[in-house]
Design a protein that fits this description.
This protein is of the alpha/beta class and about 425 residues long. The chain has helices at about 15-25, 45-50, 65, 130-150, 155-160, 170-185, 215-230, 320-340, 375-390, 390-410; strands at about 10, 30-35, 40, 60-65, 75-80, 80-85, 90-95, 100, 105, 110, 160-165, 200-205, 230-235, 235-240, 245-250, 255-260, 260-265, 270, 285-290, 295, 300-305, 310, 310, 315, 355-360, 360-365, 370-375. The N and C termini lie far apart (about 55 Å).
Length: about 425
């Protein structure tokens, strides 16, 4: 048992930021309570691979308790944090008593944003959790099964039309992989249609795909997507989503796409926990933090990752995993500084670059001033993601799965759980 007189640090969320914060406090004279709604840390950059049957769930997830089994100052709790009470220095957790803290790190992350159209969520699921990935994988695989059963040509085309809304990294990765699945993985497996006839659309309201990349790399990404067979439509603003398809507005007017499988990758919103802190929020619901990542008026609270809004070098820090990791380490250091009576330091973001994969041997990368595309970018993306995966076992499994998929074009995580009668109502 830990000494109750030792400072108690509570960390909400075991994403990249929370994980790094807890690890940075290893061996320090503090008690840590790490709370997450799941029992695993998830490597989100590869979540789309689970959604598209390229990897199994355990390949990109690691049990939190296993990660911290040797860090004796960490207690892991699985639960849903429902509110934070800064004035009382405690948090509310569903189904148990409030938990008091001396210092708090809030790394609750983000969720999907449908820009006020929450009813779309039932027809266009987003991709943030393993549950989301399994749901999308089920929808995609069942779409092909429905197409095989369908006798009407028009209805079959609707089942074989896959629409991805939002052309950021997640949307680009989903669209490119769906095109590869239909043109290579499933080729020859169906008798009543050719899977290569499947239509994959990528809709983006802005003027180009991957808008955070330079215009030249965005254009190369678009060319690589189109080479894979993806139909890219920019300047396309979605106005309605239902079970039968999507309505959108473009410069030429309003049109309707009959698509029975729609995926959402267009927007994110910060965790609603930020609203319980009583601090100023930006338009995405992120908490406006001090330069040292602390909450204004509450120096004992630090907000990090996708939930934090902070500017560095005149620009908002992006909601990416390297930023969350750096914030986690900075928050841990600043808490230790406060405990030792030293001044805290302002957070300084180091941008190591951006990567986005499009498909087999297709990717774009921005590494400082170096811009890569095609095979060099794809190899950079591949080795970077394997390196940062949690756990030696996961790295080996992913390397084997990717090597097999590269040479065979096959994806064997194509299991649909449940009987046909439990398929999505149509």
């Amino acid at each position: 048992m830990m000494d109750k007189n030792i400072p108690h640090i509570v960390i909400i969320g075991c994403g990249f930021g929370g994980l790094e914060a807890a690890k940075a406090l290893a061996g320090k004279p503090v008690r840590i309570t790490l709370i997450d709604r799941c029992n695993h840390h998830l490597f989100q950059p590869l979540l789309y691979q689970v959604a598209t049957a390229g990897l199994s769930g355990p390949s990109i997830a690691a049990p939190i308790r296993h990660i911290f089994r040797r860090q004796l100052n960490v207690t892991v709790l699985m639960g849903e944090v429902t509110a934070i009470h800064p004035d009382r220095r405690c948090i509310s957790v569903e189904g148990t008593d409030d938990i008091a803290y001396d210092h708090l790190i809030v790394a609750a992350g983000a969720t999907h944003s449908y820009f006020g159209n929450d009813a779309w969520a039932a027809h266009a699921p987003g991709l943030k959790t393993l549950e989301d990935a399994f749901a999308i994988r089920r929808r995609v695989l069942l779409a092909f099964e429905h197409a095989e059963r369908e006798t009407d040509g028009e209805r079959r085309r609707a089942w074989l039309t896959f629409t991805v809304i939002g052309a950021g990294a997640t949307g680009v990765e989903l669209a490119g992989t769906l095109a590869e699945i239909s043109r290579h993985t499933l080729q020859g497996e169906f008798r009543r249609f050719d899977s290569r006839a499947a239509r994959v659309l990528l809709l983006e309201g802005g003027e180009r795909v991957l808008p955070v990349f330079p215009a030249g790399l965005s254009e190369k990404a678009r060319q690589q997507l189109e080479k894979l067979g993806v139909e890219v439509r920019t300047g396309a603003r979605v106005t309605s989503v239902d079970e039968a398809g999507v309505t959108l507005t473009e410069s030429a007017g309003t049109s309707r796409i009959a698509s029975r499988t729609v995926m959402w990758a267009a927007g994110v919103a910060a965790s609603p926990l930020g609203q319980t802190l009583g601090a100023a929020l930006d338009r995405a619901g992120r908490v406006m933090v001090q330069p040292d990542l602390s909450l204004p008026g509450h120096p004992e609270i630090f907000v990090i990752g996708d939930l934090a809004h902070i500017d560095c070098n005149g620009k908002p820090v992006p909601g990416v995993s390297p930023a969350a990791k750096q914030m986690g380490r900075c928050a841990a250091r600043n808490i230790l500084a406060r405990l030792e009576g030293r001044a805290t330091r302002a957070f300084s973001y180091i941008d190591y670059g951006s990567l986005a994969t499009i498909g087999r041997k297709s990717a774009v990368a921005l590494l400082g001033k170096v811009q890569l595309s095609g095979i060099p970018a794809w190899l950079t993306w591949l080795f970077a993601h394997i390196y940062f995966l949690i756990g030696f076992r996961n790295r080996i499994i992913v390397m084997i799965d990717w090597a097999w998929a590269y040479f065979s074009f096959q994806r064997y995580a194509r299991i649909v759980i449940g009987a046909w009668k439990n398929a999505r109502p149509l």
